[in-house]
Every structure is written in C-alpha cells, then in structure tokens.
Fold this protein.
Amino acid sequence: MSEPLVLGIESSCDETGVGIVAGTTLLANEVASSVDEHVRFGGVVPEVASRAHLQAFVPTLRRALATADVDLSQIDAISVTAGPGLMGALVVGVAAAKTLAAAIGKPLYGVNHLVGHVAVDVVEHGPLPPECVALLVSGGHTSLLRVGDIATDVQELGSTIDDAAGEAYDKVARILGLPYPGGPVIDKAAADGDPRAIAFPRGLTSQRDLDKHRFDFSFSGLKTAVARWVETRELDGLDVPVADVAASFQEAVCDVLTAKAVEACRFVGTDQMLIGGGVAANSRLRGLLEERCAAAGITLRRPRPGLCTDNGAMIAALGAQVVQAGLPPSPADLGADSGLPVTKIVV
Ligand code: KG4
Ligand code: ZN
C-alpha cells in the first residue's frame, strides 16, 4: 500500500490525540488535553487522566474525521500507542482502538510512543534518511537513538540514568514556584535571563564519566544544584532571580543534550540528526542544536513545536510507516505495556 490512510490514537499521558495521515501527508491532528485538571496537583494524576481520555475520545475522533474530511469506512488501518506511559491511560486508548478496528474490520497496530515522537517528522519533512541519530527528549524519557528503518530498526545508544529532561524542567519549575508543566514556562522565563549567571553542573560530561556513560544523561544532580542554590539565596534573605536561574538551568540541560547528540552522529558515522519529544519544542535546545549541527556539518530535522508534544499525528505517522513496511498487524489480544522499551517499535 503506497499511501495508506491511517488513523492514530494517543493516550499515554494527559493528551488524548487522534491523528489521520495518508502516508506521510498529515490530514488531521486533534488533541484534547487534560493538563488544566492536573495543574493544582503539580503533576499528572493517573486516574484523572484516564477519565479524561474516556470523555474526550469520541469528540476528538469526530473532530479528526471532520477535519480530514474522511469517513471511517475509508480508513485502511488503525494505530494506537501501546506504551510506554501511564497504564490506566494507555488502556483507554488501546480499548478504544480495538473496538474501532473491530467495528470497521480494519487491521490494528499497537506502536511505541517514543518511536512515534521520532516518526512524526515525516509529515513535515518527508521520508527519513536511511540512517540518522535521534535525540528523544520527553517528560518521561531521554535517549539518543540510532534509527535505521523507523519501522524495524531502532537502537538505543544511551539514555538518562535518573531524571528525564522534561522531568528536570518540571521539577525545577516547582522549585522556582512556577506552574506545571514546567518546560514551556521555564523556556519563557529564561528568555529574560542570563544563561551565564550561574554555573550549574553538566551531568556525565567529565572524562571519567564519559568513559562509561558516553551517550547517557543525568539531570538529577542539576536539579539538586538548582534547589541548593535557591535555598541558600532564600536563607541569605535575598530575592531569587527566577529568569537567571531558569536561563542558567536551561543552558546546562541544552549544552549537554546538544554536545552528546553531535558526538553520537560522529560515533554512528551519519550527518543526519532528528529531534523529538516534548522538550524538542524548547527554543534554546532548537537554537543551540541548529548552531552546533551547522558547525559539525550535520543536517538537523526539527518537527514544529506543536508536533513535538504528545499528539495523535505521531502515532498515525508511525502506523503508516509500519503498514508501508508490510509488517503484520498486532494480535487480537494486544495489551498496553507501560514499560515498553524504545527498541520494540510494534507490539
Ligand atoms: O513528549 P511529551 O509531550 O510527553 C511525554 O511523552 O512525556 O513531553 C512532555 C514534557 C514535559 O516535561 C514538558 O515540561 C516538556 O515536555 N516541554 C518542554 C517544552 N514544552 C514541553 N520542555 C522545555 N521547553 C519547552 N518549550
Ligand atoms: Zn511523549
């Protein structure tokens, strides 16, 4: 099938997403977020997210079909996030997808959320190169990947040994008294700050650490360093310069992410890099990567910020790649796997 019409369903965290693609052409990307219901708790509450998915699914599906101007009977296949993510939230999407696939008599593909973050770029910049390095930076995961065929060949070069990059943003936002999710607010606050104001640590970059953890990340020491710095300042009765702390923290995160991503390209022997995941929407990460990739002769692919955070288009886009690769659909007893490894692309 050259341009399969695939409907993708995403429900791994707090966004209910339904996307529709024809091959690599995006026809609809409807997202309903329950983020407002989690703000007062300072993080996603799994039960609240699951209930919100249940309520949002049918209206989001209807909107996607209307936007794409397609009828369910025209859909060639359905893809759904099978993991990783919150179990209760994943189960809602998988059950909905199974029901829909059975009702219209079309194949169902359970796919990997993290690989979806990488695959989504095809709807913006066309088919992926034969090989590239992908920097995957989300709320729950941070990895460097070697991507061959996106449907069959993803290897992990390294990953975080503690907090994910997005998690670090969310935790530092809380330390600074900023709301959840912290990424976008820190991104904004940092715009008015000096990234050189405070020298925060760059995790796993010393020569000793690089010997063992060349492509791994660590952000928990950085988070603690920010907390200590703020605490000391408060104990001294001084104001906390939020913009400077945000900018200096962000610089530490982006410096390490970009340096290791460029190094991974050298290691793999490719001049193609791609970024994906919620933190890939970050303005400094996008800017610094652009600079460092240009200096290293690397072509950088960046999906637009709206496609970096969780959505259904990424699951539809990966589903279409999987259909085009001729892989078999998922079994009828497809289940959700909250800990699905990034190397397992289709379940
Ligand atoms: O990929 P995603 O939408 O969900 C997961 O799969 O986890 O990523 C969400 C994460 C959150 O931690 C959020 O704070 C972060 O992405 N994020 C950002 C930005 N926008 C979202 N981090 C930094 N800068 C941003 N502009
Ligand atoms: Zn995600």
Notes: The mean pLDDT is 97. The CA atoms of residues 206 and 213 lie 10 Å apart.
